[in-house]
């Protein structure tokens, strides 16, 4: 995620903080400090986000248990995000991954409750909601208990993108297919978002109205994403390869390729060994343009290309939803397609979009959800 920086590693997972997270620290210092001062407010805020990290870590470890790589956990002002390479589509796996985060909150609540009760008895204080804003160990413990329970309850609302929405889909998916389960879960989530929005407007709760709107939009996006994957799953890489694509010789120069680009709409060029047709790499229009702007017209194309060893490879029979996962996993715009040991071409994100557009407009999208 852009504008994020790494602050550590947990169980092999990068822990990052978005630059805007600093704003919530300032806000926490001013709002939670009270009579104890801004440093106490920062402590309260960091403790709160420690709960968020543990919640996301629950999801991450469950995903890793099923062999799903986790890119990182990033802290934002609105919470945390664990970026998985993909979401499991087997219902039982999605159920475990989705419920693992809230399960962490249940454990944390079970640990915090006796601490709060014990401190309350020791300090002879009445356990009221007012305690959560009082400085001190009892106040901090009470605040974290309340925040933990709130996080649990909110995340279990059965609507996307919340954990409850994924738990709902996984539960329905035990009795029907993934796309149908998504459609039902999205419909339920959107209905709840509308009801929440009406209630928020009636009560004059602007922030709650924003949350309801966000849940409604996120549900639509989830439905569309699953529908898109369903379409792409019907197409193999062999069907997405473009014919008559121009390949480059490793002896071509930047200037020669730049001149050719004036009459060729291609944006990515495979570079092949003229002796045996071996795939050497991909020259992109972006890299070529950069070399041109630097006055490097006479450089060999091999000096500015992405080399084959850095480019993911797939088989002709790979479906486009799997290709999409491969592109996301490698953070690249193209993959090399092979038939056994023989190079067959390059598929780009634009090729996948082109195929999706064709399928959507040609009647294959009968299962696509309404926006």
Characterise this structure:
The chain is built from twelve helices and eleven strands. With 371 residues, it is an alpha/beta fold. The protein folds into three domains: 1-156, no CATH class; 160-232; 237-361, Roll (CBS-domain), CATH 3.10.580.10. The strands form three sheets. The chain has a four-stranded mixed β-sheet with strand order 1-2-3-4, with helices on one face. Strands 5-6-7-8 form a four-stranded mixed β-sheet. It has a three-stranded mixed β-sheet with strand order 9-10-11. Strand 9 (313-315), helix 11 (320-330) and strand 10 form a beta-alpha-beta unit. The longest helix is centred in the N-terminal third of the chain and has 32 residues, at 91-122. The two termini are 26 Å apart. The relative contact order is 0.07. Mean pLDDT is 83; it is low at 365-371.
Main pleated-sheet profile: 4 strands, mixed
What structural category do the secondary elements indicate?
A: alpha/beta
Share in helix: 40-55%
Q: What is the averaged pLDDT score?
A: 83
Shape: elongated
Biggest sheet strand line-up: 1-2-3-4
- The termini sit apart by 26 Å
In sequence order, what are the helices and strands, one letter per element? EEHHEEHHHHHHEHEEHEEHEEH
Q: How many domains?
A: 3
Low-confidence region ranges:
365-371
DSSP strand tally: 11
Radius of gyration: 26 Å
Number of helices: 12
Strand residues, percent: 15-25%
Which short descriptors sum up this protein?
12 helices, alpha/beta, 371 residues, four-stranded mixed beta sheet, 3 domains, single chain, 54% helix, CBS-domain, disordered C terminus
